[in-house]
Amino acid sequence: MIYSFLCATLWASTGIFVKFIDGLDVTQIIWGRFFIALILCLILIKSGLRAKQFILHKHPLTEHLLSCMMTGYYFFATFAFIYCPVAMAALIIALSPLFTFSFRLVIERVFSYYEVIGFIIAFLGLSLYFSSKDYISSDYSLQHIYIGASFAVGAAFLKATFSYFLRKKVLKGDAVDSSFININTLTLGVLFLGLYLIFTESSFELSLNNSYYLLGLGVVATFIPNQLNTMSSMKLNPTIHNIIGMSTPISASLLGWIFLDEKQDIFSLCAMFITVIGIFLSMQTGSKNIKVRGTSQNNNSDYK
């Protein structure tokens, strides 16, 4: 579970690096974070021979689809924050556990009371936190809010789908090349955005400070959490992993307090505490998975 918490915390640092970057548009920033993270991934391949074997080796279609899901998640989440208020986008993306609940209920006919109650409490805490501040600006039109909300729902769905089906693949005993999934995720982002920047003839000029911040964005907020997300999705109950991900807005707020002097009041801190309670409640290892049909109860689910 430590990987999942680290993933959520490091993803939360995205806003800090983006705030410090000046003079680049959003597309350039996203491409830069993908490119730097991809270069670091390729550096970690120990030799050119291994890299060649890695690229030429045939991978299952499911691994390509999983990569596309995470690339899509990065795109959808970014545009969600562009088109609608930050608070609304963050809350909608935090709904990703609802999709894993649905997958488990429909596909496996099973659910956990602790996960459901923990999610409700965590989401209540997040709602209270965002309601304590005036996050919604009049600059957003209703049409843009609808577009942004749609992107946020898409991001939540892709994140939950990735976690659920990767975990199912591992539980079935299928071999999973996590390195390929991570590198392919970043490669797709670099290629698609690179083509966009070429066709729009976008100029890419970097100051020394922007180089440092973009490097931090690519390594700290992209490369490391991308690895941790895949590892967590392979080893942890997908619902719990996504509920832990609900701590990302809280971590972002705390980082903003430290680095941007965005102070928090008592009400906000209490709301954060409620969210944390919900997250830890969902992680109760003694929880039972209740079968929707039949009377049997399973105390030792593979999803623990």
Give a description of the structure.
This protein is mostly helical and 304 residues long. Helix content is 74%, strand content 3%. The chain has helices at residues 2-12, 14-20, 26-43, 48-56, 61-83, 86-93, 96-108, 113-131, 142-171, 178-199, 208-235, 238-244, 248-259, 266-282, and strands spanning 110-112, 289-291, 297-298. Strands 1-2-3 form a three-stranded antiparallel beta sheet. The longest helix has 30 residues, at 142-171. It is globular. Mean pLDDT is 81; it is low at 295-304.
Classify the helix fraction into a percent range: over 70%
SS-based structural class?
mainly alpha
N-to-C order of helices and strands: HHHHHHHEHHHHHHHEE
Name the overall outline.
Answer: globular
How many strands, which pairing sense, and closed or not: the largest β-sheet? 3 strands, antiparallel
Which helices and strands occur, and which strands form pairs?
Layout: H1 2-12, H2 14-20, H3 26-43, H4 48-56, H5 61-83, H6 86-93, H7 96-108, E1 110-112, H8 113-131, H9 142-171, H10 178-199, H11 208-235, H12 238-244, H13 248-259, H14 266-282, E2 289-291, E3 297-298
Antiparallel strand pairs: 1-2, 2-3
